[in-house]
Amino acid sequence: MRKRFPNTVRVLVVLAMVCSLLAITIAPAGAQTVTFNGAPPPVSGPVGQSVNIVATGFLPSAILTITMDGVKLTTSPATVTTGDGSIVPAGQATFGIVIPAAEWGDHKVTITDGVNTLQGLNWIQVEPKVVISPVQGTVASSATVTGSGFAAGVTALVTVGGQTFASGVPVAADGSFTATGTIPLLGAGDQVVDAIDGAGAVASVAGNADTFKVTPTLTMSPSSALAGDDVTVKGSGWETGAVTLFFAGAFWDTVTADANGVIDDPGVTIPPAQLPGVKKVEGTDTALTPNTAETTFTVLPRVLELSPSSGPLGTTVMLLGEDMTPSAPPNMSIIDVNDLVIATNISLNPGGIQPGAIEIDTTGSISPTTFVIPAEEAGGQRLPIGANTIQAMDGGADYDDNTLLDNLSAFGTFTVTKPTISVNPVTGPRGTTITITGAGWVPDNPVTITFQGATARTVTSIPDANGAFGATLVVPADANRGANNEVRAADMVINEVGVEVVGNQAEPVKYTVPPPAIAVSPTSGVPGTDQVTISGDGFGAYTSVTIQFGTAEFADKPLTDRFGAFEYTATCPGQPQGAIVVRATAAGETATTFFTVEEEPDTVAVATASISGKLVRVWGYYDGEWQMYDPADPVGSDLMSLTPGRGYWIKVTEDCTLIFGGFSYDLKAGWNNIGWR
Asked: Within 13 Å, how many C-alpha atoms sit on residue 4's CB side?
């Protein structure tokens, strides 16, 4: 017994100490309290709303757990710890939560530190809410409405501006739904977006409806037409009442939007005076802050048919057109004839180049009319090369061209082309005959071709039915030296008031007169034997020419003709063997060329001196002729020399060897055929 008693005492002492510590730890700091957003619970709000909570009376330095309907809530901060009394009062904590996705109504919230627990069955009351995306758009545009905080297991009706957007939308277990649809027919401005479910939850009653701003639309049908045509103007999303329309920046018309903000007016006339092209159309209503919308409309051109549609100035063109303002029908008491009265670039005025007014018949068609493309517009401005717009404007429905607002215009394009010329050759001495060919000219309209040098020389040619011509012209004697001459071509065409003026002009072609030149024929020869001819061109007209042949100067001085050309023949004067310069000088201008002076060939007697006692006769054949050398009859011989590269027949009295010029020829008595080297 004495051995066990001390151990029992020790156990009892330890247990007493543990119980004492536990009693200190679990001792409450006081009664627990809580506030939501500074007030006692409950708190009402939609899903996603923030709630600031202050909890007191819990254990100091304890971690709190917060749940809603048994599900732990996310808090801020993520870990909620009560104060220890040093800074934050002991047992107190401040934190925030966000109302999670949940259905409409009351929800139980519990706060505990593991020992002390505080809870309420209706501390969070979830309200219904709707949100639309996008927040603005036009009638019939697509949108998506999301809802939260509605009753689970029922369906919802979604409205925009009181009109059904989507019906029978199922609500999920967490009270949410998603609905897609199109914006119903509504007027301009902010429209309420709402939803009500089968349990009676209404977003707007809770103050959680959304708004959608309806923006107006403006369209035209068709989207393109002729000026003066009627179109239908349509639109939606407007303030009820008048909508003012502007076409290309100017007032156009006024249409009316009905109680639903809809415009549907089929009788709006495109301004007749509008030119073709894409135009901006704008609308403005009468709202306190006016709503506006815009669109584009393409004004189509009334087509003037032109045949041909291209050609040089002076071309005769046939004009046709339709869809103009008709002339009054003949059964009216007063017959009005509608005429084309105004045009740009090419005048169609009765007082201009036209034979009279161009009449429009009772169907609005332009009577076939021919006119000539003028060289100039009124005021002397020339029509440019390239595309020119022809605009014809009629007298309008009132047949009065002084009131242009109702006048209709038709448009055509005529491309002015530039005729061309070509010259062959484009270089040569004075007196050269050149050929000029033309293309793209006005048929049967004379074209004047001019060689413009120091003075002008002209010739006239008539283009054929295709506008082509050909002519020749002699380069004048006073043409400029070098590329300082031009061949030009032009015709005469009437202007807008019927007066002939210079019309088409081809691009000039340069013609080059080269410097003086001479030639010698032949280009080589033997002095004192061969005749040479020196010819030249490009010199001044009727001037004497001094000719130098190497160091020799001919006494005769030939005279150039009116084109600066000459020809002179003389015997080649004695000059050293080799190339020499031949010069011709006239009026200070000099031309040169080269001539080769050849060595006088050895005679047959010299070449055959090594066999002079044995040679009987030599025959040679060249260029269709036989030539003979007889040592016994040198006067009657016509073969004067032996030319290398040619063949000869040589007759000797006995065997012998002919030696000349470093070569030897073995000959047998009688006739021998050799090639001379």
From this structure: 1
Burial of residue 673, with CB atoms counted within 10 A of its CB: 0-12 exposed, 13-18 middle, 19 or more buried:
exposed
Residue 71's closest CA among 32, 101, 39? Answer: 101
Average pLDDT over residues 67-74: 97
Fold of 33-126: Immunoglobulin-like (2.60.40)
485, 503, 479, 483: which is closest to 493 by C-alpha?
Answer: 503
What distance in Å separates the CA atoms of residue 40 and residue 56, rounded to the nearest whole number?
12
Per-residue pLDDT tens digits for 195-243 = 999 999 999 999 999 999 999 999 999 999 999 899 999 999 999 999 9
What sign has the CA pseudo-torsion 183, 186, 188, 192? negative
Architecture of domain 302-416: Sandwich (2.60)
420-513 is classed in which CATH architecture? Sandwich (2.60)
Find the length of the chain. 677
The fold adopted by the segment(s) 216-300 is Immunoglobulin-like (2.60.40)
Contacts of residue 225, Cβ cutoff 8 Å, sequence gap at least 6: 231, 270, 297, 299, 300
What amino acid occupies position 641? Answer: S
Nearest-angstrom CA–CA distance, 186 and 259: 9
- From the CB of residue 389, how many other CB atoms can be counted at a distance below 10 Å? 16
Surface-to-core class of residue 246, CB atoms within 10 Å of its CB (0-12 exposed, 13-18 middle, 19+ buried): middle
408: DSSP letter: -
SS3 letters across 288-312: CCCCEEEEEEEEECEEEEEECCEEC
58: amino acid identity, one letter: F
Q: Is the pLDDT of residue 118 over 90?
A: yes
Homologous superfamily of domain range 128-214: Immunoglobulins (2.60.40.10)
What is the identity of the amino acid at 408?
L
CB 390 within 8 A of CB 338: no
- pTM, full prediction: 0.58
What stretch of H or E contains 231?
A: strand 230-236
Cα(25)–Cα(28) distance, rounded to whole angstroms? 8
